[in-house]
Amino acid sequence: MTVDTAEPVIPTRRRARYWLFGLLLLAGAGGLLWGSRGLAHLALWRGREAARNHDWRTAESWLAEAQSWHPLGGESTFAWARLNRRLGRIDVMSSALQDAADAGFSPRKLQREVWLAEAQSGRMQSLDAKLGNLLVAGEDLPAICEAYVLGCLLNYRLNDALRLLDLWQADFPDDPQPHYLRGRLIEHSTDFEGAANEYRRAVELASGHGAATYNLGRALLALQNTKEALRAYEQATPILYAPQPGLVGQAHCLRLLGRLDEARSRLDEALASPADDPEVAWRLAGEPVDAAASRVPAEYGHVELAAENYPEAEKWLRQALEADPHGWRNRYSLATALRQQGKTEEAAAHSERVEATKQALAECDRLIVKLRKVPDDVEARFTLGRTFLQHVSEKQGVVWLRSVLDHDPQHQPTHRLLADFYRDHADENPEFAALADYHRRQLQADQEPQDVTEDE
User: Fold this and answer.
1) Which domain holds residue 448?
2) Crossing angle of helices 210-222/192-205, nearest 10°?
3) Per the CB 3.0–4.6 Å rule, which of 4, 80, 168, 198 could disulfide with 145?
């Protein structure tokens, strides 16, 4: 019989409790009883340091501990709200901000956090109006810059993002986040070598930056450097918020290298350890959240397609399309699997839909190039919003449409389309019914909500 001499793995939350309890014992032994307030300050400091290093799981554990020890006049609750904003959990953030307000925390800082949340989700009006004053004040600049740049990326305001990144990087040369976000921005222009260099620099500054390591893998894949991409994904997997994106990235590389059994093994591991919150896991890896639930079955389908195991490929690809009906690449692969099994009629229907999507996306590419030169082109933004809504991503489509209203608040086709969208999806979010009513009220007397399904 063998004896396992490895140290037991203690979950992060429990480690935080043991660490604090140990300090409490030491403090008591030395006659320096810190009390709950001192322990809350310590946990708060540890949580903020972890967040600064993009160690999100550890940050969650420490900041939860800080709240459990003492509210610190709302400071620990505010830190919890900020973390959840960065994780994209806006409902948790809103609740925590209210708790911080009830505890007497600074109303000015609470309002600023709301502006940052709006900006990073693509609603830029509030932060646009206040940005100059906030930058001059010089308080909390990295948080402000990050939210603003994320909003600019969503709204395709690349020049605005670049200008702020330059300022951010000049003032905080040791911060990895400007390099990471610059890499994301450079990828938009398909400069994958430049993007890879920025991701490498971010990792040099913060070796635990899981998103930068993961995105380096994606850039290397685009450069057809599959073996190096595989190494990047392997390094990213244990330091990401959840391992699933890294495991899927590894499986993708292994498939391209012809190592199909190893690819299946990675995907089985991903299925055996699903993310608690898949959208957060993929968002923090720098990927769109719409397709989060489809990523594992989609890659499994492509592995089976490469193995010419067409019935299995069909099974997995159907699961992927059920999770993300807009995944046109998965639809194309499903058509291939069906055709190989003689299911030509269904395959033809999927292929027809793929061709319609590809034509729409080709028009989007043209419009995006146009927006680089004329970012205020309202009609281009409207067409992009409508196309994304119908063919690519409803979330991104809504962001594009809201950007239209930033430039023309009375744009009637946009209000009509948003009124229809929120009405049709009212059962998905309790706020959608009110949003549908709001956009309906913005329509002029001779404009009635109707489904907009064809190009105008």
Assistant:
1) 376-456
2) 160
3) 168
pTM of the model: 0.83
CA atoms of 397 and 90, how far apart (whole Å): 19
Alpha carbon distances (Å) from 409 to 156, 351, 395? 18, 38, 20
Length of the chain, please?
456
Answer yes or no: are the C-beta atoms of 275 and 281 closer than 8 Å: yes
Domain count, the chain: 2
H or E element at residue 261: helix 260-272
Residue at a domain's end among 45, 62, 81: 81
Which of 164, 156, 142 has the alpha carbon at shortest distance from 53?
142
In degrees rounded to 5, what are phi and psi of residue 225?
-100, 75
- Cα angle vertex 44, ends 42, 46, to 5°? 70
Q: State residue 183 phi and psi, 5-degree precision.
A: -60, -45
- How is residue 127 written in tokens? 């932060």
List of residues 6+ apart from 337 with CB closer than 8 A: 301, 305, 310, 311, 313, 314, 317
164 found inside a domain: no
List all residues 6 or more positions away from 97 whose beta carbon is below 8 Å from its beta carbon. 78, 81, 110, 113, 114
Q: Is residue 420 part of a domain?
A: yes
User: Domain end: 81, 112, 136, which one?
Assistant: 81
CATH of the domain at 420: 1.25.40
**Which residue type occupies 390?**
Q
Packing angle of the helix pair 177-188, 192-205 (nearest 10 deg): 170
- Average pLDDT per block of 10 residues along the chain, 456 residues long: 37 52 47 68 93 90 91 93 94 95 95 94 86 87 94 86 93 95 91 97 94 97 97 97 96 98 98 86 91 95 98 98 94 97 96 92 87 88 92 87 90 94 88 90 66 44
Q: How far apart are the first and last CA of the chain?
A: 75
Tokens read off for 185:
């921005």
Task: Decide if 349 is inside a domain.
Answer: no
Structure tokens at 420: 């229809």
Domain for residue 1, yes or no? no
Is there a contact between 42 and 69 (Cβ–Cβ < 8 Å)? no
Spatial distance between the Cα atoms of 30 and 33, rounded to a whole number of angstroms: 8
Q: Are 196 and 223 in contact (CB under 8 A)?
A: yes
